[in-house]
Design a protein that fits this description.
single chain; 204 residues; alpha/beta; Metallo-beta-lactamase, Chain A; six-stranded mixed sheet; 14 strands; globular; metal ion binding; metal-binding; MBL fold metallo-hydrolase; Metallo-B-lactamas
Length: 204
């Protein structure tokens, strides 16, 4: 599976938007960088679908631009004018060449989902490999209105239950991609979240 972070060179705050090239060429999140359409076109001429992990602005600000440029199907848990397919926990969605299970993982966002295949995890912001707070196992912030550390903890636990042992590629919404023992990274993130220590100095 060919995966490209098409927002890697962004000069503004954005999520990682991943272009997955295959029989069903897919963009996982659209990002907030105005150059994302051109970056996608550096690799492919067309995009079959967009799948959204959640709809915070850094993940969807360029969704209209992407949809206008490529007219893809759009898969999302939460309502969106651009959504063509509603997804729910337990659904299966093809990304690239592989089928991924949809796992509902709220806490950081009420509409957050992750996508899990036999060897790959697109985790959005529920779990990340590294960020400004922690390395080797971090998680989305939960200090803003509508967010919940307790629900995030449950979501990470749910994700672990649904994560095959052979998963060795993790593409998260922020930080670096990870290749190796993904389960260990997710378990590390869960342990840190369960300690209920603030992720950021001003977090309550």
């Amino acid at each position: 599976m060919e995966v490209y972070n098409v927002t890697a060179n962004a000069e503004t705050f954005t999520c990682n938007a991943y272009l997955v090239v295959g029989d069903t060429t897919t963009l996982v999140d659209a990002g907030a960088w105005e150059g994302v359409v051109d970056a996608v076109r550096d690799h492919v001429d067309d995009v079959d679908r967009v799948v959204l992990t959640h709809q915070h602005p850094d993940h969807v600000a360029q969704l209209d631009a992407v949809c206008d440029a490529f007219d893809p199907d759009c898969y999302a848990y939460g309502e969106n004018d651009r959504r063509t397919h509603a997804i729910e926990d337990g659904d299966r969605v093809v990304i690239g060449d592989d089928a991924f299970d949809v796992v509902y993982t709220p806490g950081h966002a009420g509409d957050h989902v992750s996508f899990v295949s036999e060897d790959t995890l697109f985790s959005g912001d529920v779990v990340v490999h590294d960020d400004g707070a922690f390395d080797y196992g971090s998680f989305g912030r939960t200090d803003r209105p509508g967010q919940s550390r307790e629900r995030l903890i449950q979501s990470i636990d749910d994700l672990l239950e649904r994560l095959p042992d052979g998963v060795e590629h993790m593409y998260s919404g922020h930080g670096e991609e990870f290749h190796g023992d993904v389960r260990d990274v997710v378990e590390t993130a869960l342990g840190r979240a369960q300690k209920r220590e603030p992720k950021y100095p001003d977090e309550q």
